[in-house]
Design a protein that fits this description.
single chain; about 325 residues; mainly alpha; 10 helices; about 5% strand
């Protein structure tokens, strides 16, 4: 059972408050959030479809991109529908089990995403620094092993954290000052000491993100050294261009994520609560929305195939009208 055994109340649910202090702006926020969620679903689904259909894209980099698209859909879907329910209708009630499940999915997905960014950086390192050994290094078995390691690490990180939060007694207020079941926002409602789970979250996420960012930085240092040793400027530009979309995605993911996480710990008395909640919301919604756009625009094969699909769909509509009796 996900419900805490210590809960001494008949109310078996939490109430998400949305963005405390900005309740009057909820309707205004609902429209852009709806648009971003729709773009995230359509864009990532298009990425998956194009890579699945286009055989020339059956390469390690694009397989990792497929997994990233799935994680992005999962991440956005775990929070956006409930946020929209709060913003449109004010319905913030969420059952204990659903709240803890949402918390697990959100934090496991973020841990998986940082691992995927590291895997994609490794792919670019091998492609640029060891191009002759690319096929022998990134074999299907190697890719499967990397993917499994990413998922297992996310599960191993989240399981103890979820267990610690579930064991807390929630016998006072069930009003969560957040738009989704964010770990700290829920844990602070407990009638017992929540610091062990909070310290575990801070230390664990810092180790995961810190190690991943360090390895990514090392990969790109070696990539830049290799690129600037190339004699042709065209070759240099092409090599840098292939990494541009990946760098953009990393900035979108790590920058708001790190700001959100550390502001929650060290800037509570400086940064208003509604700003903290907005940062956390953007951190989960903006990367899934912009990732497919960035990769679609920066990757010529994906862009051309998407344009072909859109063109074919546009041609089918007038054809159907002409054939209609």
């Amino acid at each position: 059972m996900l419900e805490s055994p210590c809960n001494q109340t008949s109310d078996s649910s939490f109430t998400l408050m949305g963005i405390p202090g900005l309740e009057r702006a909820h309707l205004w926020l609902a429209a852009p959030l709806s648009l971003m969620y729709a773009v995230a679903l359509v864009g990532n689904t298009l990425i998956l479809t194009v890579i699945w259909v286009e055989r020339t894209l059956h390469e390690p980099m694009f397989y990792f991109l497929c997994i990233l698209a799935v994680v992005d859909i999962l991440m956005a879907t775990s929070v956006a529908p409930k946020m929209l329910s709060i913003f449109w209708s004010g319905d913030g009630i969420i059952a204990f089990a659903a709240c803890f499940a949402q918390m697990y999915v959100v934090h496991a997905a973020t841990a998986a995403e940082t691992g995927l960014l590291l895997a994609m950086a490794f792919d670019r390192y091998v492609a640029i620094c060891k191009p002759l050994h690319y096929q022998t290094i990134l074999t299907p078995n190697m890719m499967l092993g990397i993917s499994l390691a990413i998922m297992v690490r996310a599960i191993l990180f989240m399981t103890p954290l979820s267990w610690m939060v579930i064991q807390l007694p929630f016998c006072a207020s069930h009003m969560v000052p957040h738009s989704y079941c964010e770990h700290m926002a829920v844990a602070k409602l407990a009638c017992a000491d929540y610091m062990p789970s909070s310290l575990y979250s801070l230390i664990g996420s810092s180790i995961i993100v810190g190690s991943d960012v360090s390895f990514i930085a090392a990969s790109y240092t070696l990539i830049l050294q290799a690129v600037f040793r190339l004699s042709s400027r065209d070759a240099q530009f092409k090599a840098l261009s292939t990494c541009g979309s990946h760098v953009g995605v990393m900035v979108l993911y790590y920058l708001p994520g790190m700001i959100s996480h550390y502001v929650e710990w060290f800037g509570q008395d400086v940064v208003p609560l509604h700003t903290q909640v907005l940062l956390a919301d953007f951190y989960l919604v903006i990367p899934p929305t912009l990732n497919p756009i960035i990769y679609g625009l920066r990757t010529k094969q994906i862009l051309n195939r998407v344009l072909d699909i859109i063109g074919n769909c546009c041609c089918i509509v007038p054809r159907l009208k002409l054939e209609k009796p």
